[in-house]
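ok so heres the complex, two chains, lmk if somethin looks off
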Amino acid sequence: MTRTQIIVARLALLALVLGAWEVLPRSGAINPLLLPPLSEVLATLANLLGRPNVHEAVAVTAAEVIVAFIIAVPLGAAAGILIAENAYVGEIFKPMLFYVFSIPKSIFLPMFILVFGIGFQQKVAYAAFTTAFVVLMSATAAVESVRSDHIMVARSYGATQTQILLRVYVPSMMPVLLETLRISMIFNFTGVMIAEMYASRTGIGHLISNWGENFQMPQLFAGVIMLATVAILFNEAVRALEARCSTWRT
Amino acid sequence: MQHLANMRDVQGRADQAAIEVERLSHVYAGADGGVPALQDISMSVRAGRFVVIVGPSGCGKTSLLMMMAGLRHQTEGTILCHGRPIPTPDPTRVGVIFQEASLFPWLTTLDNIEFPLSLRGTPREERRRRSQAMLSLVSLEGFGERYPHELSGGMKQRVSIARGLVQDPPVLLMDEPFAALDEQTRMTMGHELLRIWSTTRKTVVFITHSLTEAVYLADDVLVMSARPGRIIDHIEVNLPRPRTYEMMATDVFGKLRDRIWQQIRRTT
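and the predicted structre for the whole thing:
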């Protein structure tokens, strides 16, 4: 298939899904109370975007996501690099971290609520907790992607430790680190949403959960579209950066 | 001591030695005591000579080369490079070429060649001028802006040689640089290396497993024994230069290659 054919096929798939979303509820094939037609959802979305309480919820959620991310990424990255670089630290901490990594983190949510309440701090703490693990695992992989022969070459040309770090480690790790950033944001966003839907008085997650409980399906789907758009935009932005920084990887 | 006396002959005239190894021994620290890796090695490489070291796998020849480069430290003995020890890597005195070209995949050919210069903060125009010169020395004009993944194995190793030569060190240490290449490329690269060597007049210490490569390239072949590595023979190759492909079919060439093989077989 040529590039154009693939793009046409992709657009056709999108049109099919969106078209079905419009037609099936309208024709009665799907109960419109459960799945309102796309046009109705979009109209609700436009309406919601004009409301102050939605603005406030978006601002709260955005702040939680950003703060959790800023805490989790350096923390996880530092821990991951330490574990990968220091054989002893790695030997001691690796098994326990791998075990904890396999546990679904949401089961710890009640503890976070007991400690932090149901406000801003709890969302940030819980999201940062889940995200830091993902960053840690990927940072370990990033360090392990640095080739020892590259370090040897740099040493043979008299590179200092700092030069080896900046000129060999950083560029070697960059593609994996950007990928980490992207994937950890997915986990981070999920963490904030789960925390907001579980117990909260503010935030988009809280609104979506409320709309669901009150059977306000157009609002619920409008919220889903809103969140999906933000998540996809961030993901694609980092992916574009990733592609630019790793042309040499192929 | 017999081989030590033998080594004295390598120096021949009173020219200054580019590399001088005196009574070098190395023991690897192991769980159950030390493992002797190199034993009482003495050798002297006259400036401008092409010396090839051959020996069975694991005989410690790579370790010996790493020590000459200041990348590893021996347990005993001294190494002098143009009269001075080399405790840490010094790319202005010794360039090292590894088996893998080990180019940085995120840098272009020119940037890779300039890497050693950029570590020392050489100004950009100066760097470009010298890397361009190296690029034409290794016959890769027009490939300066390519990335390593766009180059063939032989081309990568040419870039690696250019990178080793960019600071104009008098000594070039090469650790099986063509071992990962196919036979045809290997022949071409050997020929290219001799051309580069004859224009730059570097001292080369070259490690290989290939007997043919050893005889084809060398002024002197040093044969090492199995672990613990010792130098058990020194063979002077008196074939005229420039060396040609046809020489490989001659009796002299065959006899030299045979002698190396007999020595290696005797030790393993």
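quick notes: Chain A touches chain B through 21 residues (CB under 8 Å). thats all i got rn
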